[in-house]
Design goal:
Number of helices: 5
Distance between the termini: 77 Å
Low-confidence stretches: 122-131, 251-264
Order of helices and strands: EEEEEEHHEHEEEEEHHEE
Mean pLDDT: 77
Shape: elongated
Largest sheet: 6 strands, antiparallel
Oligomer: single chain
């Protein structure tokens, strides 16, 4: 018989408590909900994806594994609708999860469903539509000597890059982080998420999510944050990038992209000289050089 588990670490990016269940085979699962926010749609179904919890270490956060099951659930009858196969025991996990739901969880899901259906207030017609802020420049492109940051989460690996607005007239005071999934190798790299991190200390804001759940994004962000060399590193980089936008210099030198070193191909002593004389290198520009 499955049992509900109460753990304050099971909170998503919207600060909502998630439902977690200990299944009869000992597996710990956490259910992530997905709601249709179209106010014209009156379907009572909610999509649930139940992930296996691999690690509950307080220092590392919550580490999730592959989905155990994925299904639609009618929040009026509490009967499943569509079932998307995830594993060999997906039907059993789904039924145990449904059987474990208590009155409190059912009321919570209904409340979240109603909130998702609420029509968002429209902006006054006199105001132009808000345009997304632009973070065009990656710190590593301006300062290529900065180390590349790689975060490992379970079997997945992400390259995390910090982007900055370099407009000297803009005081946005925020940084954008992109995570590229390189689990299948650099040649298969694909963007997984983008966060906007206010330097004021507020929580980061998700602006792009491509095939990775919100909890995993938060885990990657926390690991990346723990790996910073100094707590104020982002603020220092922000100041550097604004100075770069103004064309200023720093104590380390000009704030311009530094060319990466190129290797000049070595000319063999018996090969034609590169000056175009037609002579062998050792008889021309290579005369007097030491034999290798």
């Amino acid at each position: 018989m499955a049992e509900l588990v109460t753990d304050m670490r099971f909170v998503d990016s919207q600060r909502r408590t998630l439902a977690s269940v200990r299944f009869s085979d000992g597996t710990l699962g956490i259910a992530i909900e997905s709601y249709c926010d179209n106010p014209e749609c009156d379907s009572p179904h909610v999509m649930f994806t139940i992930h296996e919890v691999l690690n509950l270490d307080g220092a590392k956060g919550v580490e999730l594994g592959q989905p155990l099951c994925k299904f639609d659930l009618d929040i009026n009858t509490w009967l499943p609708g569509r079932v998307m196969a995830s594993g060999e025991n997906d039907q059993a996990y789904m039924q145990e999860f449904i059987d474990a739901l208590d009155g409190t969880l059912k009321r919570r899901f209904r409340t979240r469903w109603r909130k998702a259906k609420q029509r968002k207030p429209s902006k006054p017609e006199s105001l132009p539509p808000e345009t997304p802020h632009s973070f065009p420049v990656i710190y590593g492109e301006v300062f290529p000597q900065a180390p590349v940051t790689i975060v490992q989460l379970g079997s997945r690996m992400f390259i995390v890059a910090d982007h900055y607005c370099t407009d000297p007239q803009c005081d946005c005071n925020q940084v954008a982080l992109t995570g590229a999934d390189v689990s299948d190798g650099p040649e298969q790299m694909k963007t997984a998420f983008m966060l906007v991190v206010p330097l004021s200390g507020e929580s980061p804001r998700m602006v792009l999510n491509m095939g990775i759940d919100d909890i995993s994004v938060q885990q990657v962000y926390r690991k990346w944050l723990q790996g910073l060399r100094a707590p104020d590193l982002l603020a220092k980089r922000y100041a550097q990038m604004k100075a770069y936008g103004r064309g200023e210099k720093s104590p380390e030198g000009p704030l311009v992209p530094r060319p990466r070193p190129t290797r000049t191909p070595k000319i063999g002593r018996n090969q034609p000289c590169s000056c175009g004389s037609g002579k062998k290198y050792k008889r021309c520009c290579g005369r007097g050089t030491a034999m290798s």
